[in-house]
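note to self: dont lose this again. the chain is below, predicted strucutre after it. 120 aa total, dont forget to put it in the shared folder this time
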Amino acid sequence: MSAQEIIRSIEAEQLKSDLPLIYVGDTVKVGVRIKEGEKYRVQPYEGVVIAKRNGGINETITVRRVFQGVGVERVFLLHSPRIDNIKVLRRGKVRRAKLYYLRDRVGKATRIKQRFDRSL
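---
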C-alpha cells in the first residue's frame, strides 16, 4: 500500500456523509460549534455562499453576510468537527463560480435571484 492510498483511506473515514448539495449563490445557515468553558453550543451563521474551493476533505465554502452595516466573510471547512450542521435556505441563480463582486455592492444591489429548478 502506497503512502497516498493510506492517506486517502484515513481521509475517507473523516468525511461527513450528511452534507447537503451546496452551490455558489445559495443562502445557507451554518451551525458552528463553540466551546464555552466545558460546554459546547451551536451558533448559527447565515449568509450567501460566494465561493467554493478544493474537494474531498479539504472542501471549503466562503459565506458572506452583512452584520451591522459591515460585510463579514467566514471560510468554513465542510468536513470539520466544528461544523454541526448546514441547512440550505434558498437557491441562488448566478452565472459565476465566484461572487467576489458582491463585496463592492451595498443594500439591494446584493440581491440574488432565486432558483427554483434545484430542490432545497
